[in-house]
Design brief:
binds 2-acetamido-2-deoxy-beta-D-glucopyranose, 7-stranded antiparallel beta sheet, 4 helices, 21 strands, alpha+beta, 9-stranded antiparallel beta sheet, about 425 residues
Amino acid sequence: MGNAHFSRERIRTGVLLVFLWMLGLISLSCAASLSASRQKLQVQKHLNRLNKPAVKTIKSPDGDLIDCIHISHQPAFDHPFLKDHKIQMRPNYHPEGLFDEDKISDTEKPKQRSNPITQLWHMNGKCPQGTIPIRRTKEEDVLRASSVKRYGKKKLRAIPQPRSVDPDLINQSGHQHAIAYVEGDKYYGAKATINVWEPKIQQPNEFSLSQLWILGGSFGEDLNSIEAGWQVSPDLYGDNNTRLFTYWTSDAYQATGCYNLLCSGFIQINSEIAMGASISPVSAYRNSQYDISILVWKDPKEGHWWMQFGNDYVLGYWPSFLFSYLADSASMIEWGGEVVNSEPDGHHTSTQMGSGHFPEEGFGKSSYFRNIRVVDDSNNLKAPKELGTFTEQSNCYDVQTGSNGDWGHYFYYGGPGKNPNCP
Ligand SMILES: *[C@@H]1O[C@H](CO)[C@@H](O)[C@H](O)[C@H]1NC(C)=O
Ligand SMILES: *[C@@H]1O[C@H](CO)[C@@H](O)[C@H](O)[C@H]1NC(C)=O
């Protein structure tokens, strides 16, 4: 009797437990599907913000969709401060001494210089006048990011700090650099011709880039930076192609700024070059070499920072109000490569920087920056006074400067990453 009662109690408790367990499961799956649909909605909203209605769309051979967007509908004008901004269709001033150093003599001239470097999507069409080309962001692009909010933004602490107070910090962040730099003056721009390669990336969350940095302020919370160059970033673009990119921030990569046109800020005026689009062709080891010229300078009249690609393409400008320190001038310029090492426990990634070959190998094998210039306070392009160099682990990626008549100030940089001396 007692036993029967006891077991009935047990059954009742069991039923209750099963019921509670099912209830738990249902609410869990409800919560999961709710948060999944909330994320989907958030992604859609973000895509609608980024992808403006196109006048025309060009399908690039690499799978990109290039939207031709009316110039006054570009993302920059979502910025509250730019609501009444009148687009400047040309800079007031161009730095002096721009073209003479581009006359290259024959000795070390890259063999394919007559072949202009272009963007892959040019094979399939052009954007009409009055529009600008923008690489369309796809749902999967945003889903690869750690969060919708972080899409198109660099991870924190990505800046090479040649004279860091805490060297351990540099190594911890996993970012590795091989750069040349100038500091100790006021700078109003920088220029370089950058050899273009397609470095191998070991892990999809790593990247390899070659760029210049225009820096203002100290390396604190309010660091200002304008950056431009080429990058391979599977995370950002979903493939291993070499792409033209820009970046800006006015608070050390925290809340402000982004890659390319992935937030409002940069105002593009050029209808031929798309930020984030693939560059083609790229250099091959012991074979044809290709390079791109990038010039960033501050217009002395309006104070905006302009960018030029090659000799022909003025891409547009970062309005002065985006910045604090850079609203006046830059305090440091850096040129060089950066990779992310995500290997744990002191192991090194085999992600390549530059060509994946060390500076010692020289032209045709190692990647270079040549005709390095800075813009001074009289709007003149000048050779840098003293080029410093910096690398965290020269056994993994290294840098070597030099100068001669044709290339002016130059350096070779990069390396293979993991190798017997960099385990
Ligand atoms: C990118 O390259 C890596 C190896 O370097 C390869 O494993 C990966 O599949 C490539 N990704 C794409 C999208 O081609
Ligand atoms: C970074 O770590 C490596 C290996 O532990 C070390 O050899 C190198 O000196 C470090 N670099 C800096 C700048 O601290």
